[in-house]
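Record Tyrosine-protein phosphatase, 289 aa.
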Amino acid sequence: MKRVLLSAAALMLAVAPATVVLAQTAAAPVQQQAHSRLLPLEGVQNARDIGGYRTADGRTVKWDVIYRTAELSHLTAHDRGLLEARGLRSIHDLRTVEERRAQPTVWTDASAPTVTAFDYSMDTSGFATLFQGGMPTADRAREVFAASYPEMLKSQRPQQRALFEDLLKGEGAVLYHCSAGKDRTGMATALILSALGVPRETILADYELSNQYYRPDASPEAVAANPQAAAFMQLPADIRAVFMGVDKRYLQAVFDMIDRDHGSVETYLDRELGVDGADIERLKSLYLV
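=>
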């Protein structure tokens, strides 16, 4: 049983898509737009346009320039054509080297966008200790997940820095993703929308949209092909739901850390990523209308 729990812990931290589909609580309401937030991709989960949100100064984030998704290993010809038609120029893969090897993005066309990724491994020790005393409660799992977020943010600084450097070029549409498109991708989205001046309440609501749009493959074939997924299926439903969904308290833990240690997201961006006030004004000129 201990081996099952540790295998499940490793899977949950990686949040690999080949796991069970869970019924999730609907996210908080966000501004409704005529433009579709969900990208009509056939082989990609949780694919969303982050445009359309109003900023504190009354402007709006542009559509069709910044996309967030889950992993891209099942892109279809239709998907590649759609993204090419939307002017996709670059992809930022936020996953570990192990995740990229397990589910590689294959896009070899001459018109393929550039891909930026960093070789690193994820620290799973916090999640392994969660199961050492036996099966935790769902509330305890949420506490551990929330506690992991600030450290996860810090571990993603090289990826965040490269993403902002790319956005500052303003040379075409940019897409970034992790495995499920909810945790590392959610934090990156929070930083981008904060830099653009989107209110925090709106950012938290956008973050929780992953509860609606992330639906992993639950087929017997998919589960059988992934031993970790099989271990995950043995966990109680309420524990699975915690790790396959999102809760605004997780992202709020990141904001709390930034506010405590830096005073504001703008100061965090300047100190940790080298994105200063002039850069933020450029981002607003590029991505707001």
